[in-house]
Automatic annotation (TrEMBL):
Pfam families: DBD_Tnp_Mut. Residues 103-167 form the Transposase MuDR plant domain. Residues 76-88 have a biased composition (Acidic residues). This is Transposase MuDR plant domain-containing protein. Residues 1-20, 50-91 are annotated as: Disordered.
Length: 281
């Protein structure tokens, strides 16, 4: 390893020169004469030259100097405020917000257009209003209230830089009355709400579903739609019956693997069309 030796030397007094100072307010450049220039060293300083760097050695008292440690200045309050405003200006939509706690605002971002449409659907059901989509393409989506005189509107467009969708216009002023029947609560929406109930309460009944939607969402649904959506929800939770019976043989093989020496018999009943139906196991 090669060592660099630094010899002791006298420290020259501060140099004189001209320094240009840029004033941010007026953009003019002012020349200042005889500005002091700080001379410093970069690198490791050996013990042999500590006296040379001592401001009290070889100093005439007028040109003495002190070295200063250079540090990155902390962010100013203005920069911090601008950063906070930037973050607050573009909130990100979080799916799964509790009913009655969902809100929309200008600048809110969505991953895909479907998220924006479903958020608008949930929000309008929450507010008890009916809306319709009047523009829906690859770059924009606009929803308005079905009542022509009502100024409520939500407009979102695609942000190519962030590859997301963002609300650009949002007028949350409804002048129309609330309704307890809302076509925004379509089959998929009702089914998604019933799936949670059926998973928690397997014997969730029709009358309980009617009461649930009235008390929780202030919605009045007809009997046929509730019956249909209950069947859909049970299919999601328990799966289709035919699909389950097709897995019987796989289930039998799993039992044989986990219980060596066992015997599994699957009894079926032939049908005229050639299909067989499960009888017993």
């Amino acid at each position: 390893m090669t060592h660099a030796t630094v010899g002791k030397r006298n420290i020259s007094p501060l140099g004189k020169g001209k320094e240009k100072i840029l004033h941010e307010d007026d953009g003019l450049v002012e020349e200042v004469s005889d500005a002091e220039v700080d001379l410093g060293f970069v690198g490791c300083v050996h013990e042999g030259v500590e006296d040379g760097l001592d401001p009290g050695v070889d100093s005439d008292g007028t040109n003495s100097w002190h070295s200063e440690e250079m540090k990155t200045p902390p962010n100013s309050e203005d920069e911090l405020e601008e950063g906070n405003e930037s973050e607050e200006a573009s909130p990100l939509f979080r799916e799964g917000a509790r009913f009655e706690e969902l809100h929309l605002e200008v600048g809110m971002k969505f991953g895909i257009k479907w998220e924006f449409r479903e958020a608008v659907r949930e929000y309008t059901i929450q507010e008890g209003r009916c809306i319709k989509i009047v523009k829906n393409d690859n770059i924009r989506c606009r929803a308005v209230c079905k009542v022509k005189e009502c100024p409520w509107a939500a407009y979102a467009s695609r942000d190519h830089e962030d590859t997301c969708w963002q609300i650009k216009t949002f007028n949350d002023d409804h002048t129309c009355p609330k309704e307890d029947k809302n076509r925004a609560a379509n089959r998929n929406w009702v089914c998604s709400k019933l799936v949670k109930k059926v998973r928690k309460y397997p014997n969730f009944r029709h009358c309980e579903a009617t009461t649930y939607f009235k008390t929780r969402f202030d919605l009045t649904l007809n009997k046929n739609s509730i019956s249909r959506e209950l069947m859909d929800a049970r299919s999601v939770v328990y799966g289709d019956e035919k699909e389950q019976y097709r897995m019987v043989r796989d289930y039998g093989m799993t039992l044989l693997k986990t219980n060596p020496g066992s015997t599994i018999q699957i009894c079926t009943t032939p049908q005229p069309d050639g299909e067989v139906t499960f009888d017993r196991m």
